[in-house]
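Technical note accompanying the year-one report. For the benefit of new consortium partners, we illustrate the data format agreed upon in the data management plan: each record pairs a sequence with a structure-token string. No post-processing was applied to the example shown here.
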Amino acid sequence: METTHRVVVGDARELSAVDDDSVELVVTSPPYPMIEMWDELFTELDPAIGTALEDGDGRAAFEAMHAQLEAVWDELERVLVDGGIACINVGDATRTLDGSFRVYPNHARVLEAFEARGFDPLPDVLWRKPANSAAKFMGSGMIPPNAYVTLEHEYVLIFRNGGESRSFEPGADRRYEAAYFWEERNRWFTDVWTEVRGELQALGDDHEELRERSAAYPLEIPYRLLCMYSTYGDTVLDPFWGTGTTSLAALCAGRNSIGYELEDAFRKVFADRVADVPELSRAIGRRRLERHREFVAQRRREGDEPSYEAAYYDTPVMTKMEREIRFREVSGLDPLADGDGYRATHEPLVE
């Protein structure tokens, strides 16, 4: 099995390198409006945003920033197949402008934008991130009423393009081999994720400016979403590619990927990251098996023996749909002929 992983240096407001109805899944984390680290980028896209911020007009800046994101959402409607899924990781922002502190509800604004484009919202996920300090409030300390709740979570908003789910041929191997374990389903499909921790991006001293431009999520976030909402051989798009975490997850999960990124220098960072992909993909598959066997052992201690046997691994499973699970590992990785990405060879993971 082969997959391709293309990186396009360009503006995601026009995904000209992506054909209509050619992407099954979008997994991305856009720059969050009204977070100061993104002010310069948004102002480059629309100088009126900088003017609004200088004038202390937070509402105008907020709307203008989202207008830039909405141009990308227009493109996602075009490139996603019918029934394709878009997963948008976004956080709300708090900010003081013109002497007034308030929250800017990015998740609500993105939800509104996708609904306006005909996407069906699906149940979303709250990713609860660890607090950066022991203080659980902002404002005036112990004296009411002018303290504020801290934001310790982000959203993973999930949308389906159109009213119907994707259809597959009966018994499609690429779907059944991409199944997840029963206990993974129970953990992944809960609406609050508490065990996924944020991570600092180790870009190194040579990438100081890029570190300031990067707010990548942990690999666990896109990897889960790829496993939850796509099958082997599907194509996943990240229009805000950054350090390429979504593409890294796609490599490990046996999916194709396309990334759009304004900053060409991020491709060098990704080239450093992909060197470890064969080992990483193997480790992820083995760790999933290890965790499953730990789960089985616990069930047996509780007197509950799973009813079925996996076809490719020496382990019982809980349901018929899990029997064909077959992990993939990257066995080969070569640059594409045009230099704009990689071609990967995947082999079934063998213990």
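Partners are asked to follow this layout when depositing records. Residues 199-214 have pLDDT under 50 and may be disordered.
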